[in-house]
Design brief:
The chain is mainly alpha-helical. It has helices at residues 6-61, 66-90. It has one domain. The radius of gyration is 27 Å and the shape is rod-shaped.
């Protein structure tokens, strides 16, 4: 038969409750961070649509004109760089491997 002191059990329950509360707080923080990332991702997606579709339309309209094709290619490269820079700026740092 195992005997446990009442104070010992209460202490263990308090530790468990404290750990569960800590997990819940972190989950709330992570959920808020995920929601913010979703909003940022949608904003980036919207910007891509605003930039890329007109560029593709220009490309289709000038498909016989090498100068027009090069201009659209240059615009697309600039938009790609801007997108890459934006994604980098809003991305959280990668945590170190444990």
């Amino acid at each position: 038969m195992i005997f446990c002191r009442k104070g010992n059990i209460e202490r263990k329950f308090n530790v468990i409750i404290s750990l569960l509360q800590s997990i819940l707080r972190r989950e709330i923080i992570m959920s808020a961070a995920m929601d913010a990332l979703k909003v940022q991702g949608q904003a980036i997606s919207d910007e891509i649509t605003k930039v890329v579709i007109p560029l593709l339309q220009q490309l289709a309209a000038g498909k016989e004109d090498p100068v027009a094709i090069q201009a659209v290619t240059d615009q697309l490269a600039a938009a790609t760089k801007a997108l890459s820079d934006e994604v980098t700026s809003v991305s959280p740092p990668v945590p170190p491997a444990v």
